[in-house]
Specification:
heterodimer; A: mainly alpha; 67% helix; B: Ribonucleotide Reductase, subunit A; globular
């Protein structure tokens, strides 16, 4: 019979560590219930669709690791800090928008540049939303709560920039009612500049192996997409005197960099398990060509930056190398 | 030029659906994950979230809310609230944090299912916030529980519970995995957002919060209220979907989802909140009885909501009204008797004054549940403590996963509703639990309750505690060290003298 009523210094699951657990670990570590039993993630018939689905796509994933819970977000982001961080960044964006509106920024833009913005800039809300959905898939499938949390913040970040893009779309629509702002769906669906990314993202969304999904998303598709816009389009915008677009994209890049940091940590952990090396190489070999096609098509539409595609591909390979994987 | 208002651009931010070309619609949105009823996309795309919040406002508001919730905690961190709390309130906190924290965290993924597989951008965006909300609730729970951990190891279960096969945790998982995690995005939203969150979270966040404030536990009270403000927002994902189901001739299917979810939630809240409200909360701090709260805040409001939507009361309404009188009293007995199997330190909550209150709130209590408590009291007073802990395992319901209970004493009523399905016999508490099973037997039939695991030899009878991941130092102990029976020394003398 237990008579012990005294307390503990830390969660039993964190006891024995060499240092005192941080608040991040206390509220983020080892929280999933779906990973407790390899046979059934959910407390119902093992042969129920969702149990088979989880078994197949996580238990049978191309990526395996004996201890996914060993993953730590290098930013150690927890919910309340996320809001503090992003509220501050949003305040900065509010300031940018207010200041540029006051200066009638849009009216001073070069008409040729403005004409290209629906295609190059505001149509991006569709792929951003695809990335939001893809992150949500990682949230619901990841075999560690520390991974789930990073993906949840990433998904919310994507919606952040859809919102800001919608804001700008409306502002530009008011300033230039005849340029097609707000009617970008046809561009996303049919414009050759977008078809590469459309194919990449549709295929990514329909990829249900969790390991392949997270690598294809965070090591290939998202950084490729972010590099195109947040680096190359930002550069073109600056050259065209569109400082607002440039500064918004540069602000978006900060969120992308956070994604890259946890991606590097995740890949580093993944590579601790030797067979994953070959698995990741296979994933990259499958997805990199799609990304390259997407980059080429999109960058070809970018005016004034002839070497954009090469720069994006170089940037992407650098990010992949930083993750410790050899680009395909 | 001034900043735009959110209504100027909000619709653009949710104009993000497109028609896939490089993969099929079915590959992108498998019906098992998106919508088993295959409602027309044109209809689903009309989803209009009743409560609109922008990302900008979300991070600002939530930041401010967290400052409030965490600062109360900081102010009280050095207080002696826990040390000074009654054994019942301690038991309530221990049970609450162990039972609720992991469910909050699990829900992060349920909303992510809606974000990925919902068919309307507005639904997906609101579910994106839903995932963050649930992460908030999990983290604030874990943060608070961690504070208490230094005072009692029972709070380890706030973090540990999800990885265990404790019978209470199995019961919770069976329920909420059924409603939230193993259905298509639309069914899950109806069952979770509409039936569960709209109907039942008031119980946690209004009733429990009021009791907590009465007990002087302001940090817990503030935490619960702060969580409720998120629930009230994201619960609204369900209603537009329900309306679509009705408008497209799928009212019967919607009704079934609601009926299943409402009953399953009822069983959980009855066993966990009902016992807390009517037994664990100190008598002089109770806002009202569990039954009163159910009637006022749950049943009346939910029925009004259902009727407002053109839906019917669940078919089992009369059975529910009967169950409200008894189920949690029976569960309280089981929880008390099987206390070593629980991570918290249960109390009886049945001293003479508490019994008088129970009899007043639930006329006939003394002639039924009271008779069992009389036996327990006699055993404790005679020093036969071992006799107050059953030697055999209880029968568990194959639907709600809790003990199969009935009404003891003079109104003896225990009926095991059985069903033979594919060579196996299943046991149910009620016709409703059995009915749920029959709606989709293959969903439930393969699951083994803790007792099934023993019966099938998967778990040895003497290995049950280990299977439940309970180390000996974690076995639940009597929360008052049996001090509560002392009140009967006087009471019994009086009763014998007066012949009552």
């Amino acid at each position: 019979m237990n008579t012990a009523t005294n307390g503990l210094k830390t969660w039993t699951t964190l006891a024995g560590g060499r240092r005192r657990p941080t608040e991040y670990e206390v509220v983020s570590y080892n929280l999933h219930t779906r990973t407790r039993h390899p046979g059934y993630a959910y407390e119902l018939s093992p042969e129920l669709f969702m149990n088979r689905f989880y078994r197949e796509h996580v238990g049978g994933s191309v990526l395996q690791h004996p201890d996914w819970d060993a993953f730590r977000d290098p930013d150690e982001l927890i919910y309340r800090q996320y809001n503090v961080l992003q509220d501050g960044h949003e305040e900065y964006v509010d300031g940018l928008l207010e200041e540029h509106a006051r200066n009638e920024h849009d009216l001073a833009l070069d008409p040729a540049w403005l004409k290209g913005l629906p295609r190059l800039y505001t149509a991006a809300r569709y792929p951003l939303h695809a990335l939001q959905m893809a992150a949500a898939y990682v949230v619901q499938m990841a075999p560690a709560s520390t991974i789930t949390n990073c993906a949840a913040f990433q998904g919310a970040d994507q919606y952040r920039w859809i919102s800001r893009l919608a804001y700008r779309t409306r502002e530009l629509q008011v300033a230039c009612p005849d340029l097609g702002f707000g009617a970008e769906r046809a561009l996303w669906e049919d414009d050759p500049a977008w078809q590469g990314f459309r194919e990449l993202l549709e295929k990514l969304l329909a990829t249900y192996d969790w390991g392949e999904h997270v690598i294809a998303l965070n090591v290939v598709a998202k950084p490729a997409f972010d590099l195109c816009r947040c680096r190359q389009l930002a550069r073109a915008a600056r050259d065209a005197g569109d400082t607002l677009t440039a500064m918004l994209l540069e602000a978006e890049w900060r969120d992308s960099e956070r994604s890259q940091r946890w991606t590097q940590a995740l890949v580093a952990l993944t590579l601790q398990h030797a067979p994953n090396d070959a698995a990741i190489a296979t994933i990259l070999a499958r997805w990199q060509p799609l990304a390259d096609t997407a980059i080429d098509a999109w960058c070809a539409a970018l005016p004034g930056v002839p070497e954009a595609a090469a720069a994006v591909k170089r940037g992407l390979r650098e990010l992949q190398q930083a993750c410790g994987v050899q680009p395909a | 030029m001034a900043l735009l208002n959110s209504e100027d651009w909000y619709d653009i931010a949710r104009d993000t659906n497109w028609t896939p070309r490089y993969v099929s619609e079915q590959a992108l949105f498998p019906k098992e994950l998106s919508d088993v009823l295959e409602m027309p996309l044109e209809l689903l795309e009309t989803f209009d979230e009743p409560y609109k919040v922008t990302y900008r406002d979300y991070v600002k508001t939530q930041r401010e809310k967290d400052v409030g919730a965490y600062s109360v905690k900081a102010a009280l961190a050095r207080s002696q609230m826990y040390e000074n709390a009654s054994p019942g309130w301690k038991a309530l906190l221990q049970m609450h944090f162990g039972a609720v924290s992991f469910l909050e965290y699990h829900s992060v993924s349920a909303f992510a299912r809606m974000t990925r597989f919902g068919r309307a951008p507005g639904m997906r965006n609101m579910a994106t916030f839903g995932s963050l909300d649930e992460m908030r609730h999990a983290q604030v729970h874990l943060y608070f529980a961690y504070e208490y951990l230094a005072k009692s190891r029972t709070f380890d279960w706030a973090q540990k519970a999800p990885r265990t096969d404790n019978w209470v945790i199995i019961s919770e998982r069976h329920t909420f995995d059924d409603l939230e995690h193993t259905r298509d995005a639309i069914s899950a939203a109806i069952m979770t957002n509409f039936a569960f969150e709209t109907a039942f979270t008031n119980l946690q966040f209004i009733a429990l919060s009021a009791d907590a404030a009465n007990c002087g536990d302001f940090s817990f009270s503030t935490m619960l209220q702060s969580i409720q403000s998120d629930e009230a927002r994201h619960a609204q994902i369900g209603e537009p979907l329900l309306k679509m189901m009705i408008d497209s001739g799928r009212k019967a299917e919607a009704q079934k989802l609601i009926d299943i979810s409402f009953w399953r939630c009822w069983k959980q809240f009855s066993a966990l909140s009902g016992t807390c409200m009517d037994y664990y909360t100190p008598l002089d701090k109770r806002e009202g009885s569990f039954k009163e709260f159910m009637n006022e805040w749950i049943l009346d409001q939910f029925v009004a909501k259902l009727e407002d939507m053109g839906m019917e009361k669940p078919w089992y309404w009369d059975l529910l009204l009967e169950d409200i009188e008894v189920f949690h009293h029976a569960q309280q007995l089981g929880i008390y008797l099987y206390r070593p199997t629980e991570w918290w330190h249960p109390i009886a909550g049945t001293n003479p004054a508490e019994r008088a209150w129970l009899e007043e709130k639930y006329p006939g209590w003394n002639d039924t549940f009271g008779q069992v408590w009389d036996v327990i009291i006699e055993n404790i007073r005679a020093g036969r403590l071992d006799s107050t802990i059953p030697k055999t395992l209880p029968m568990l319901c194959n639907m709600h996963g809790l003990e199969l209970t009935g009404v003891p004493g003079r109104k003896w009523n225990l009926k095991d509703h059985t069903l033979d399905y594919q060579g196996r016999r299943y046991h149910f508490q009620s016709v409703v639990d059995k009915w749920i099973f029959e709606q989709e037997p293959e969903r439930y039939a393969g699951h083994l309750s803790l007792i099934d695991r023993v019966a099938q030899g998967i778990v040895a009878p003497d290995g049950v505690m280990e299977h439940m991941n309970m180390a000996p130092e974690e076995y639940g102990i009597e929360g008052t060290n049996y001090a509560w029976v002392e009140a009967y020394d006087d009471a019994l003398t009086t009763r014998r003298a007066t012949g009552t």
